[in-house]
Amino acid sequence: MKELLKIYENKPPEIVFNWKDPETEAEGWTVINSLRGGAAGGGTRMREGLDMNEVLSLAKTMEVKFTVSGPPIGGAKSGINFDPNDPRKMGVLKRWYHAVAPLLKSYYGTGGDLNIDEIHEVIPITEDAGVWHPQEGVFNGHFKPTEADKINRIGQLRLGVIKVLESDQYSPQVSRKFTVADMITGFGVAEAVKHFYDIHGSQVKGKRTIVQGFGNVGSAAAFYLSRMGAKVVGIIDRAGGVINEEGFSTEEIRSFFLNKKGNTLFADDIIPFAEINERIWNLPAEIFVPCAASRLVTKEQISQMIKSGLEVISCGANVPFADKEIFFGPIMEYTDERVSLIPDFISNCGMARVFAYFMEGRVAMDDELIFNDTSNTIRSAILNIFNQNNTKVNLSKTGFEIALNQLI
User: What is the value of pTM for the model shown?
Assistant: First the structure.
């Protein structure tokens, strides 16, 4: 696996598009690792300090993810080095998407990512730049549909991603009009845990859980895991967190979700970050769900959780471990050898799978069908690992071998 990974990591990307904003200090990159299947896909993120290497590593991660989620295309990513809280953000995004529009028309599909919203920013700005939909390039490059079929499927994709959830089985509060895009990634992270335990003859109910990060992914994962009967005992977010060693009730988790301030946990009894960061890693817990930024989780934190009974990790964040390597660094390897580590390209593939689901054919706009499709895709990927390795360790190593054998 390591030899395959080395070959894959060291292969240069096919296309690197570099842009410098004429009106601000912003700089952006689109990295297309390959045009496998005639197209490539990956979201657009913005953060201060981002560089081309970060975008490249995420593009390669996307290509691995597509071996699970489909469609069978290359991986790509866009990133803009700019402060997302700067009032000039919208102008930067408009100029960026106008510059990258020819790629989006031809062979590259994008979406929302860190600090960039799919529904309120990506879709309307790309439309203004003359792109029918942010995924138009994937349609043209990979699916090559007739004009009529392209119109139909783009319409289906547009409606499906922003579809308001009608079932309280999937929505924390139907009247708040949460969309598929709001909930699907966190749902997949939770389903990965459920399927892992089921395949290994156990269940989620009663398992104590720690959640890192309470944005869209972490809050949704906590909501769905709690609904399954898991006991969320701790949540750590950027500014602080909460602990209840007996486990928060489903209603309490739902309340945390509904009372978020933007993408941040808000609670009356919030514990300051320095204090919770000292306490939370020693809490007895079987499940850990890292859903904050990439490259945060340390070996020391993992070791502390293992001593406290950790069994399974379902990654909501891409590359959650504080390794410098693109994929399989020493902290990830240490973790994979000791607990059941469901790799990010399986557990957080929900949004990529939704795109594929609506692009591949004509489907019904039904909450249950959309969410079951993601759940079944994740279950199939975990079963593929189990069929090659029925132990509870080295899941990520096995998962990478399966994926890389498709790519190299």
Answer: 0.93
